[in-house]
Amino acid sequence: AGRQPQPQAKGKQPPKQQQTQPAAETVKFTKKAEPADTAAALKPSVTASAKHKPVPQHSEARREALLKTLLESQRGKQTINLVTVGHVDAGKSTTMGHLLFLLGTVSEALIHKYQRESARIGKGSFAFAWVLDEHAEERSRGITMDVGVTHFETQRLSVTLLDAPGHKDFVPNMISGASQADAAVLVINAGNGEFEAGFDQNGQTKEHALLTRSLGVTQMIVAINQMDKVGWSQDRFTEICGKLSPFLRKAGFPAGSFTFIPCSGLSGENLVARKETALTKWYTGNTLVQQIDKFAIGERSKDKPLRLSVADVYKAQQMGMCVGGKIETGIVGVGDKVLLVPANEVATVKSVWRAQESVEVAGPGENVDLSLQGIEMTSVGYAW
């Protein structure tokens, strides 16, 4: 948005008349006339949309073909973007990495490799976290620093997983992930003193929950993780739920929009199935993946013009300039012309990537990367 117009300057007060003007009379101020160029500058500027370059829109035949291809590629499953948030060392990456393994998204051979490599540097329990923490510095430090992106499927949903960092030094990266999300998993460490450390004023549990809601997320799963550390205590689970429920309602999550799930990311208990007797004797609710599958999907506007919220701009060796982000409305296919704002530059879509696979078309709700041609990073990089 442009700057707000500044109020016009007022003129100087005329000198009081010592003899003829009554003392009780209100002194009036005169308004100095603005020069023509100043007055014009103070008027609201023309909206950016009026200056945008024209972009060819889809013909009816082109739109129908793209929609048909999109529906075929989705295989009847709706798309949702899911972000994991929570205090540092709550076990977010380990929990979601183990979930991906149990769902078959990650091979057993890869997990064995990570187990050997992590044990070699004294971090044997981080093998599942390495599925999402791919950078060398993240693995050496044992914390998530950037947003890890991967994909998996449930019975009815195609899920883009955004694994956000929990350390307070990387809150901007957490915001970047949460801004693209439709729903969230807030991971809590159930260990004695661990939940309290994350929930106090210096912890990230409260901040992440507030930021997630402020960024438009209205559905949340609260995964009470590391319950095996407290012997799957129902009392501890109830205590944590009792403290979090009023806070989440106050943060803006309506009652019924969040659900508590006890689990262990390291052992895998209650992620996809449960067999721990200490848990099954008092908990009969959903597993984590079952609850994820119950997330509601809002209306997706395929008929509106393309609007993609750019989260990343980068240059790949073979793909050239790329932009990544979430498609809010419309559809985009290979060969389409797109307008990048505020740079007001038109580019051609050379390729579309979804879930690390090249596709012909992508639609609303999907997290994609577009390879663009006819434009340079130097002309649009300042926008990010």
Brief write-up:
The protein has helices at residues 36-42, 48-51, 60-74, 92-102, 108-120, 136-141, 171-178, 194-199, 204-214, 234-251, 277-280, 288-292, 377-380, and strands spanning 78-85, 148-153, 157-163, 183-189, 220-225, 258-262, 307-316, 320-329, 332-333, 337-340, 345-354, 357-359, 361-362, 367-373. It is an alpha/beta fold. The radius of gyration is 27 Å and the shape is globular.
- Helical region count? 13
Cα end-to-end separation: 15 Å
Task: Point out poorly predicted stretches.
Answer: 1-50
Global Rg: 27 Å
Please state roughly what percent of the residues sit in beta strands, choosing from under 5%, 5-15%, 15-25%, 25-35%, 35-45% or over 45%: 15-25%
Shape: globular
Q: The biggest beta sheet, please?
A: 6 strands, mixed
- Spatially, the strands of the biggest sheet line up as 2-3-1-4-5-6
Helix content: 25-40%
Mean pLDDT: 83
SS-derived structural category: alpha/beta
**What is the count of β-strands?**
14
**What string, H for helix and E for strand, traces the elements in order?**
HHHEHHHEEHEHHEHEHHEEEEEEEEH
